[in-house]
Amino acid sequence: MRHLLSIEDLDRADVERILDRARAFTEVSEREIKKVPALRGRRVLNLFYEASTRTRSSFELAAKTLSAEVINFVSSGSSVEKGESLKDTVQTLSAYRPDLIVVRTPHVGAAGLVARWTPAGVVNAGDGKHEHPTQALLDVHTLRERLGTLDGLDIWIVGDVLHSRVARSNVLAFQMMGARVTVCGPPTLIPRGFEALGCAVEHTLDRLGEADVVYALRMQHERMTDSFVPSLREYAAVYQIDGRRLGPRQVLMHPGPVNRGVELSAEVIDSPQALIGQQVAAGVVVRMAVLYELLAGRASGDRAPTTRAGGMEYA
Ligand code: NCD
After folding, report:
1. Can you tell me the distance from the alpha carbon of 199 to that of 207, in angstroms, rounded to the nearest whole number?
2. How far is the CA of 46 from the centre of ligand 1 (A)?
3. What is the DSSP string of 115-147?
4. What are the pLDDT digits (tens) for 125-160?
5. Residue whose CA lies nearest to ligand 1 atom number 12
6. Which numbered atom of ligand 1 lies nearest the CA of 104?
7. Ligand 1 close to Cβ of residue 126 (< 6 A)
8. Disulfide check for 287: which of 19, 62, 67, 220 has CB 3.0–4.6 Å away?
9. Range(s) of the domain holding residue 25
10. How many C-beta neighbours within 10 Å does residue 29 have?
11. What are 100-131's pLDDT values in tens digits?
């Protein structure tokens, strides 16, 4: 595997292999000296055109824990502000010969384009409202660690599905791992034809009690071009997951950042049923496993090494 652009780049055996490795990396993350030499000499470029707290910092920690070199590029403060395009930026930074580019942009399909413009491997860390495959992997990991398996689970994804790249990647990943998925939200916030992904669609929380896992999503105002709900207060009255709606045997997830008091009430965020902290922690070991999968065993810059009389060269 060269790139991770979509959950559809993986099959169930790939997911299990990557997450078994993530589990093995947990031990490294818990050591006093959190470093192993697995990716020594490899270069990882974090290219972020959108805000990020968890994804960017965990990719950086993952790369550094595996001894790779990391270059962090954020669009603000760069020549993007002087009008440099994504293509020119990628081609410019490719001159530094990164082995892998981790890219987040507000544009659907941009990670796929970046993969065409650079010889480096590419990981999609969020392309607009399209996909966020490493989030889905860390969520599957969190559930496997807590519940053992996703086979037969009922998972409800509640909220702004329309603007969520997490929803799309997670529906695909959860189903691949054997869960049944229901998405729930106001009709204005569920994309038309979303059932085609294989999930059920609900517009009320009346049957939320059937869920084993409740996965809440943020209202993604930054991607809204219109008004999709009458007001946040009215939205919260109908869709907020609170102590009354969350059953005692259900677990609660959220990709972060949480808008307290909108999609989740404070009491459920801080309850032992919430796996939100575990999801964040899983981000590091799962991204270590993804970097390892894409980079270990590959020659620097994806040029296969050939041995010549004078030593190692790159074909
Ligand atoms: C999500 C994202 O950026 O897609 N956050 C994340 O990566 N943990 C979800 C969100 O912004 O609501």
Report:
1. 15
2. 16
3. HHH-SSEEEEEEETTS--HHHHHHHHHHHHHHH
4. 999 999 999 999 999 999 999 999 999 999 999 999
5. 218
6. 3
7. yes
8. 62
9. 7-131+280-313
10. 16
11. 999 999 999 999 999 999 999 999 999 999 99
